[in-house]
Design goal:
Elements: H1 3-8, H2 27-46, H3 49-64, E1 69-73, H4 75-92, E2 99-103, H5 121-130, E3 138-142, H6 149-161, E4 164-168, H7 175-179, E5 182-184, H8 200-219, E6 223-224, E7 227-228, H9 236-250, H10 254-263, H11 268-277, H12 281-290, H13 295-298, H14 304-311
Parallel strand pairs: 1-2, 1-3, 3-4, 4-5
Antiparallel strand pairs: 6-7
Helix pairs in contact: 2-8, 3-8, 4-8, 5-6, 9-10, 9-11, 10-11, 11-12
Length: 315
Amino acid sequence: MKKEDSLRKLRTEGRNPDTMDLDRMTSMEICYHMHQEDRRAMAAVSKVLPKVAEVIDAAVAALQSGGRIIYVGAGTSGMIALMDAAECPPTFGVSEQTVIALIAGGRDRFGDLSVDLEDHAQQGEADLRGVSCSPRDLVIGIAASGRTPYVIGALRYAESLGCRTAAIACNAKSEIGRIAKIAVEPDTGEEVLTGSTRLKAGTAQKVICNMITTGAMVRCGKAYQNLMVDLTPSNEKLEKRSLKILKEATGASDERARELLESSGHDLKAAILMESGHCTLAEARKRLQEADGILRDAVSPCSPWYFASSTAGKQ
């Protein structure tokens, strides 16, 4: 089948009957139609939440076994993956190697959406080899069309290794969905601007990536209640956020919170435990180690603070 014929059959490449007069619309009309289509994209995502949850479980299993989350994409999909991976180290305090993204053409050509870069399946395999992909890893192929050769090549190689694999596409029964163990396929439909999948298809992909990495990191103990407790305070904004989190988690004053952060070496989990459990830094770190880094488990159920915080808001 010719490439043009296969593209014609994809919903993401179809013409949207509601925007046939897009070039005659006012700015407000364009905004309205784009907003309506984004709402449809979110409705499509809601239908695949059980599949997204499966990917989160696979990500947790990969991380707990010493593996990584590896995104593979091209064009807009690849850039969404790069963005998601780049946010994980400062947000969750993980290594840059914990969540990585491979994009057709490589990082040096970030922003270059030339179609030829995604047309080589062997390059997808080569790039996975280049990061020493192993069966412990979760490989997530991301492509709005679901038929990008670069992603297909990577997923086939990952499958041959016995990796956990998932696919995120915006067309049902996609090629990458047939290869991967878990297929996440929100049917986002035709774009406002025909074929421009950076629009609602890209929005759906970004939302799903948000769920996967956030869900996996939270499940692995990177949050306490709904607070980020493993963030890396690499700039002034994040330093202030660390202080705010510590105060909200413990009720400590500004002065006390600063003292705790300083004495703990800006180890937010240890600082929270020191204040809530009235223990030393060494004791806090020992309790965290025994709890596998899960702050909820490290806080003693006998602590008055624990009881107060766990019942807050229930009155």
